[in-house]
Amino acid sequence: MSPSPTITADTSMADLLVHFPGAQRALFAKYHIGGCASCGFRPDETLGGVCQRNENIPVSEAIDHIIESHDREVARQILPTDLKARLEDPDPPALLDLRTREEHENACITTADLFSHDKLQDIMASWPKDRAIIVYDHLGENGAMDAAAYLEGHGFTNVRTLRGGIDGYAKEADPSLPRYRLEIA
Asked: Are 138 and 103 contacting, i.e. CB atoms less than 8 angstroms apart?
């Protein structure tokens, strides 16, 4: 991974989110910034401006929090090759596939559960809080990180995300899985 650029008060929120995709999660978790229309921000706003209009949060404190959160998210990721090895363990992790049913049916890791409202109810009601859980989406982006943060927020202590998602897994660990691109209209 290449080093992330330096964050300053003049960094636009758009640039911040490109280099630190979890920044919005981090700002929302600590300061309730960016989670809804009333506390949102525009892409062209600067971090300094957002901090100033939100109770004059010290920019250096917000930057430190964003970087610490980013480092935790990177550490939470599991490499595709490491996941493949873990799946051969006597007690493999639970896999949650966040993609659509069509994507799941097209390409999935065989032991993965397709995430649904019913599956979430089952997890919350009966899964041990320390159960190893790996969450994945298509490319290992914000969807998986959001789901991992949600589970952690509900007391689950052993949640990871698959770096590169199913696409990274197919590329690095199981070339027999079909790879695909999503076309967004």
From this structure: yes
SS3 content of the chain, % helix, strand, coil (to 5): 45, 10, 45
Q: Indicate the Cα dihedral angle 69, 71, 74, 77, nearest 10°.
A: -70
N residues, the chain: 185
The two most distant CA atoms of the chain are separated, in Å, by 52
Per-position b or e across 35-62, b if 16+ CB within 10 A of its CB: eeeeeebeeebbbbbbbeebeebebeeb
Condensed to tens digits (0 to 9), the pLDDT of residues 142-170 reads 789 989 989 998 999 999 999 999 999 99
What residues are paired with 95 via a beta bridge?
A: 134
The domain limits of the chain are 13-76, 79-172
- DSSP 8-state class, residue 54: T
Domain 79-172 has CATH 3.40.250.10: yes
Alpha helices in the chain (DSSP H): 13-19, 23-31, 47-53, 59-76, 80-86, 101-106, 117-126, 142-153, 165-172
| Average pLDDT of the chain, as a whole number | 92
pLDDT per residue as tens digits for the range 67-95: 999 999 899 999 999 999 999 999 999 99
Tokens representing 25 are: 């999660």
